[in-house]
């Protein structure tokens, strides 16, 4: 497979492949590239629906011209005790951040979450996040507040230093999905109150009532699925 940089023609072929509904693996084979190369290229340039070959090419040129010591990208694991390649870790961090942002996370929240996720301890202080992401403490605080509201991060005191740190925790997705289910339930209740005002026999009332029923059903099934996973997870003892 080719190891060089993607050319403008390569990017045009990627865009054509996406427009034709082809998958990353198929596009990669046609270009003689790895699937991960294509997925990273698309992820960092707007995703499948927003990929523009011209903009992607210009962004690539800007990155290539940027002095190494002025790079805004930082590897979350600067000194790796496991012997991992720092450049590979930085690439993985960048890709994860891009994909998280595409799921709807605000960009800074995605940066903080990805940074915590690829840090072996799963916990970082404000100072550590500021140093690694090169942003202000206020930006970190705002991002963490959002992540806390989604059940993705919690605050705790480091027992040795007494400094506040932000932690993922082993029950991260369990807590997050339960929070999602709770929001669905609250939204369903709000929808039912709206139905009472609109009238269930009206077109608008019927539409909102259907939404409330859907949210209730999804919330119930989500809670059941999460609880089953939590009970059946490796290492769980009844």
UniProtKB/TrEMBL annotation:
InterPro entries: ArsR-like_HTH, HTH_MarR-typ, IS30-like_HTH, Transposase-Integrase, WH-like_DNA-bd_sf, WH_DNA-bd_sf. This is Helix-turn-helix domain-containing protein. Residues 98-197 form the HTH marR-type domain. Residues 33-84 are annotated as: Disordered. PANTHER family: TRANSPOSASE (PTHR10948), TRANSPOSASE INSI FOR INSERTION SEQUENCE ELEMENT IS30A-RELATED (PTHR10948:SF23). It comes from Lentzea rhizosphaerae.
């Amino acid at each position: 497979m080719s190891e060089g940089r993607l050319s403008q023609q390569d990017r045009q072929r990627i865009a054509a492949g996406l427009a034709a509904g082809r998958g990353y693996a198929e596009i990669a084979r046609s270009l003689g590239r790895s699937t991960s190369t294509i997925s990273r290229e698309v992820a960092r340039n707007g995703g499948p629906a927003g990929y523009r070959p011209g903009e992607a090419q210009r962004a690539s040129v800007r990155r290539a011209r940027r002095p190494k010591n002025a790079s805004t990208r930082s590897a979350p694991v600067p000194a790796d005790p496991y012997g991992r390649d720092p450049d590979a870790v930085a690439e993985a961090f960048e890709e994860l951040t891009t994909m998280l942002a595409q799921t709807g996370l605000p960009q800074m929240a995605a940066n903080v979450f990805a940074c915590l996720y690829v840090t072996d301890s799963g916990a970082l202080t404000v100072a550590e996040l500021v140093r690694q992401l090169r942003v202000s403490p206020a930006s970190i605080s705002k991002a963490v507040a959002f992540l806390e509201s989604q059940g993705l991060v919690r605050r705790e005191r480091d027992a040795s230093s007494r400094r506040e740190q932000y932690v993922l925790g082993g029950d991260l997705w369990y807590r997050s999905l339960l929070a999602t289910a709770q929001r669905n339930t609250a939204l369903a209740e709000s929808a039912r109150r709206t139905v009472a005002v609109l009238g269930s026999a009206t077109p608008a009332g019927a539409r909102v009532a259907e939404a409330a029923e859907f949210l209730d059903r999804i919330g119930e099934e989500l809670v059941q699925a999460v609880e089953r996973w939590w009970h059946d997870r490796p290492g769980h003892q009844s």
